[in-house]
Write a structure and sequence with these properties.
One of its GO terms (cellular component) is mitochondrial inner membrane. The protein is mainly α. About 80% of the residues lie in helices and about 0% in strands. The chain starts with a helix and ends with a helix.
Length: about 120
């Protein structure tokens, strides 16, 4: 299986993809509290970048599991390409938010800020 096939079929790409999914699960469990409690600074910035990678990767593997379980085989290939496109857009959007915007954590905190 080529690298592209492993990315497209992330749910059935073998133990490496499964391990990556499990690692992002653990990373998210640790990063979210840090993001909520850390003051502005280097730790929060590093947490934002880690979240910007972990969230799309975790979601990509998970959505491929849904595709395998529920999408008809006749459209599964197109659906997997769509999932990869969505993952790519999310990854680039979060990267842009971290590089040129306030960062993921600050943007999310703004949603709950009282006006």
């Amino acid at each position: 299986m080529s690298v592209l096939q492993k990315i497209l079929r992330a749910d059935s790409a073998g133990s490496t993809a499964q391990k990556m999914y499990e690692n992002t699960h653990v990373a998210l469990a640790g990063l979210v509290p840090v993001a909520l409690l850390a003051p502005e600074g280097v730790i929060l910035r590093a947490t934002d970048f880690a979240l910007g990678v972990a969230v799309p990767v975790h979601a990509h593997v998970a959505i491929n599991s849904v595709i395998s379980d529920y999408v008809p085989k006749s459209v599964m290939g197109v659906t997997r390409w769509g999932a990869l496109a969505g993952t790519s857009v999310a990854l680039l959007g979060l990267l842009k938010l971290n590089l040129t915007g306030p960062g993921i954590t600050s943007a999310v905190k703004e949603l709950w800020k009282k006006k």
